[in-house]
Amino acid sequence: MATSDAFCGRTLLVATLHGKERAIGPAFRHRLGVASVVAAAIDTDRFGAFSCEVERALDPRAAAEAKARAALEERGGDLALASEGSFVPYPAAPLLTLDEEWLVLVDARSGRVHSHRHATLDATTLRERLGLEPPGPWAAGDALCETSESGRP
Length: 153
What we know:
Layout: E1 11-15, H1 20-32, E2 36-40, H2 60-75, E3 79-90, E4 93-107, E5 112-120, H3 126-129
Parallel strand pairs: 1-2, 1-3
Antiparallel strand pairs: 3-4, 4-5
């Protein structure tokens, strides 16, 4: 097991209402040596909902960091993780949709913020998953909701 002394034995709060700690926890326990992974059941949708029911005022990375900081503030602790994802037009070919996911780890003990972005063109819309439209390229912003002028939902 590869661990980091900076995280070993600490409790990791995962800012989620959707069970993400079950998917994230094993890797963080194994790779970073955190002692436990706890769901910090906070209202993460207040930072913007993926379904666009609540408008996102922050970019996805900033929204993830805000969620992690809210978990620290509301639940206590000094180590929190949050994620944020979005579908955005792919810059090189705007008719393709880019699935972008951010993970942000806030370490209040050290004052450091660690972030990782994963992006893929292997994305499907909710309508495709439900069989309501055939798979294939779709217009930018058609993933789940209309996009703003910036091209972000």
